DNA sequence: TATGAATGAGGTTTCATTCAT
DNA sequence: GATGAATGAAACCTCATTCAT
């Protein structure tokens, strides 16, 4: 119907801007008020009407997913890069550090991932599909190398890292990094034990 | 209203029965629907009116606290007993096992403990006050003995155990016991490392 | 739990009063603004909170059904009475008169009955179950007597009466009575035709 | 915006195509979801933006009117033709048959005609203005001939036919034709009665 | 004391309508 | 003229909390 396509692309740019604003605002609001924060709080911060939120993210989980997605890519991509440049166990440790940074600054996301709330039912699956393979590769390499114990699956590890990376009230990210480090120590294979 | 007023003690017994029913029901409902479950769900299960809930537990946190309390005592008391009968590191490990059993079967409690929700603001404090000293004693003994590293505080440890004990969707308590064991391995002091 | 039952009955009376007020208000509002009128309009007229409406009538159809029910009984009961005191064709005509009075003063109900809106899916069934047998008895008697044609089912007749009894904008109930009378004339069995 | 502006007539053709698509789509959607169906549903089916709908049909009633109009002309024109080729009473019967075909396949239109909704306030007037005279002519001829009773006005008749032609859930157009036939039988003048 | 009906604030969601492109 | 993104009012519905009985 529209002979000239130009306006369409222009419009898309506007929409894109709103979508980005929403995801950013949602990230901030989730961090403050949790994943169940009122939609209004998010749209106000994004400077956008409620309708716009629902147009782009019909379900709450869509928005949460977008927020997760917005940070997850860099972490996912870091996996292969670290594997290439470091010995397996070290690569795993460095990757976990990155992962903790991601989760620890996104209060409430992890709890959404395991909340059991039907609205978020798909999220853990998405999360695992996206990061599971990266962890599996890192873990397998270290197990093959013989420096890491083999009795813990990639998903178990991912879940443990997720929980330990949860922001703890009254403590900073250092706390998370410390307990994650302890956990990874425990993961080291030590035949003498 | 009631012409035949039952003796006071009789009433007390009734109240006690209701309180117990409420706490038990709340535990079950929290496990199924999370700590934010509708009050009605709890009172229906307890076979009691909503008013009764509010009489005994004016705030949601009071009820959560009661539920936590109902399981926490045995775990708290187990601390000294285990310390008396086992070497420090082993005592710590056994106690952690008990603790995990408690938390892993109370879905949602840990997340309430760290939810940041103002309604639960007092809970972490209560939790720490109650269990902090027990962990501290077990931990100090092991550090003194030299079998456990000294760079992790009792509260950090308690928090880490709490997170790792969270029920993971699709996995059972075995998962929690496994990752807790890994964590405790990491806690062991190993000068050779 | 409550030893003395008296208060319960008392309370029921209060609730009953609200329910009656709601049904009456709904009848009035449906007549003015149609069956899809905002819930608020109804509760305001009934002098009751929205919550009360939803407690007693969780679905819109429940309320419509109650409104229908509130008038339908007298009409249903009139069937046998008229059959006993009049020749069949006359009984049918008199009953139709009563039926038209009922429907014509409840603007919008009939349209709900055949709206196709999923919310009202059960209503036509309810309506037919309630009145179908009455019409069938009246009709059968007249057919047996030989004064009424036999090629129209009771449900067809009921539906036709319902449609012709719909309040017509700008016309009063006389209009409905007149067209219903014409229809019933058409129903008369006349072998000579 | 558009550098290459198409000739005006070309534009007109496009607009015409859109209008036709909208009316057709509206007819289909009204049949399925009622006259109050979301605008989006209609524009999607027409393959057109919402803005286009509002440009051509600023008010919902305009669209309904267009849909009604699209079918009404043939029926209106059939009046004189039938009057010319048949005896009055027969002409009336045949015309009613055509009318029923029109209404029975346009679910929801008749209810819009008498909904009382301010948005449709003009529709009944339009409907009567268009078809009233046709019915009046047919009716007058039959009354003059002496085969049809004279105590029912053309508008009363039109309204009755409209109601009886309403699609009945679970029944087909046969049902409507049957009850309309009964009604017309009732309309016949029979001095013997 | 216990009850559960009533309340209404607060959140969600839908959709008619506008308007920049 | 056409588009469809954005808007926000308006409706829905749920539930924590109060309070008359």
From TrEMBL, chains A, B, C, D:
Keyword annotations of the record: DNA-binding, Transcription, Transcription regulation
InterPro entries with a match to the protein in the record: Homeodomain-like_sf, HTH-type_TetR-like_transc_reg, HTH_TetR, Tet_transcr_reg_TetR-rel_C_sf, TetR_SbtR-like_C
Record PROSITE patterns: HTH_TETR_2
Taxonomic superkingdom: Bacteria
SUPFAM superfamilies named in the record: Homeodomain-like, Tetracyclin repressor-like, C-terminal domain
Tagged with keyword DNA-binding: yes
Gene Ontology MF terms: DNA-binding transcription factor activity; transcription cis-regulatory region binding
Residues of the DNA-binding region: 38-57
Domain HTH tetR-type: residue ranges: 16-75
Identification of the protein by name: TetR family transcriptional regulator
Organism phylogeny: Bacteria, Bacillati, Actinomycetota, Actinomycetes, Micromonosporales
